[in-house]
Each structure stands twice: as C-alpha cells, then as structure tokens.
C-alpha cells in the first residue's frame, strides 16, 4: 500500500465492485463482472490523481463506488478518517456535500426542464445551505461568475448553452456545496479539443481558489499528463501502476503502461520510445485470466505470471507496480 507523508484526504482500501450476471428463466446469478477488483490507493489533500485505462477497465465504476453512487461489493473508502462504505444511507447523503462528481456528458446530467439558476441552486436547497432564497440566488450568481458564465443567463435552459458552457454549469453545481473532493469522470472527453483546455484551465484555477482535491478519470493519456500530479493505470478492474506524473511518463514500469504510452505521440522526443502493439483483445472482466490478468497480452510474460497474482508493491519514490518483472 502507498504511504503519503501526511494523512491522506481519501484512502481506498481493497475496493471491489462486482455486478451480478443473471441468466436462465429464474434469472439466477451465475457469475459476476468484476468491474473493480481489490483497488487500493490514497489521494492527498489538494492533489489531482488521474485514473487512466482503456474503455471498460473500471474507471467510472471506481469513481461511483467511492461516492457510493454504486454500492461497493467490498473494501473501505476512508474519507477524512471515516469509512464511507460503512455509513448508513442517510449519513452518506449528508457526506455527499463534501464529495461531488462531474460527469462526461453535461447535457445528460443536467435536468433539461430546469433553468440553469435552478440547477445550481437545487443542491443548496436540498442541503439547506442558506437561510433565504435571496442568499441562494446571490450564491448562484457568484458561482456562475466564477465558472465564466454570465449571471444574467440564470433563467435560461441547458439546451441554450454550448457543450463547454454546459460543463461549466455542471462544475458550478458541483461547487455549490463547497465540496472537498471532486470526482471528474471524463469531464472534457465530450468537448471540442479547442474547448477542452479552457475547461481544464478553469478546473485548475478552481482547485487553487477552493483548495479542491480531484480524482480525474480519463482514457486520454495526453490530457492526464497536463492535469494530474500522480497517475494510476487500471487494467481489468485493477491498478497495475501508480506513480508521480513525470516518473510515469519518463520511465513507465508496467508493460501495460509502456504499451499505452508507446501509442502517445511525443512533441519533442528526447529519447525514442519503443512502439509496443498489444496482441489479442481485453479479456472479459467476468472471466479474468488467472495470475496476472494482463499476462495474456503481455510482451514480457513469464511462467509465474500465468499462475500468481502480482502484489501491488512499492518501488520507492511514490511508485507502485503490480508486475512479476519487479519481484524482489
Ligand atoms: N451496471 C452495470 N452492470 C453490469 N456491468 C457493468 C455495469 N456498469 C459497468 N459494468 C461493466 O463493468 C466494467 C467496467 O465498466 P466502467 O464503465 O467502470 O469502465 P470504464 O473504464 O469507465 O469504461 P469507459 O471509459 O468506457 O466508461 C465493464 O465491463 C462494464 O461493462
């Protein structure tokens, strides 16, 4: 397990989320999709932890299980010393003030029948944050300004805004409760490339201004490179490598990380990167391979990889890797 010098804001220990697969006439549970399988990591106050991996590796499920938008199958999510996974639904509801999420598709996540002002104000009403409607409206105007929207547009509806502006509305709504941690699930993937950096810059400014901590979920290694302090790489529901950003990009350890990075173009390459093309498809998370789940596609596969699950071990300097190549 990773150790940070100060107490982390969030510590995820052995997190699991299995989805039942039902089949037959009686719809009996015959197997499980192991979407997240034994995940452990920490997030320090004020940092941005990136979580990357191919589609279906369990990134979104991880984000949702941390916030208990999906009930974890196992493990602990320690937020400021308290295990969120053990809270009653009502206790968890109150905690949500501190933990917010920004979704990939701002259009789908905003109620089309509510005005932008109502959308941003709603969480304040639910959590009884201000005494009067006037105070809430003032806060709505302030938040709209903070995210770069004109407060006079608060009576408009989401469809009247562009994709980038809609994501700003989603961010303002998430900020309405003064959260400490924001899970940003592919927050710019649906936006034009030209708009992406504007929204990322806004998120970075807000992080400084409000002391926010982010878990930033993305399939795009170029985006996380510029935005994150540390990066965790997931494969088939597990974290295979976790490292400070520069270490990960300059010297990736896990063969899977190396293969992902080998496909990312480098602007001014100091060293020539080997091109690793993985063979085969990603196996089903319902029937993951034995041993190291990556062994079926690994260019460095050894006999032990087929039978023994590698430990997620510390390599020093804040680096962790789950790979038999690094057995000590
Ligand atoms: N509600 C669900 N019921 C059953 N299986 C699910 C459910 N949600 C996700 N899964 C499965 O869990 C696995 C992980 O999905 P998840 O959406 O977390 O991956 P992801 O890395 O976020 O992918 P993407 O980038 O495509 O969103 C996938 O195999 C997916 O099909």
What would you say this structure looks like, in words?
The protein has 2 domains: 10-98 and 179-326, Rossmann fold, CATH 3.40.50.300; 114-174, no CATH class. 30% of the residues lie in helices and 24% in strands. It has 10 helices and 12 strands. It has helices at residues 59-66, 89-95, 116-126, 133-146, 163-175, 193-210, 221-227, 245-250, 255-262, 303-307; strands at 10-23, 28-43, 48-52, 74-79, 82-83, 99-102, 181-185, 213-218, 230-235, 238-244, 313-316, 319-321. A hairpin with a 2-residue loop joins strand 11 (313-316) and strand 12. Helix 4 (133-146) packs across helix 5 (163-175). The chain is globular and about 70 Å long. Residues 19, 33, 35, 53, 55-61, 219, 285 line the site of adenosine-5'-triphosphate. Adenosine-5'-triphosphate (ATP) is lined by residues 19, 33, 35, 53, 55-61, 219, 285.
Task: Jot down its keywords.
328 residues; alpha/beta; Rossmann fold; four-stranded antiparallel beta sheet; 10 helices
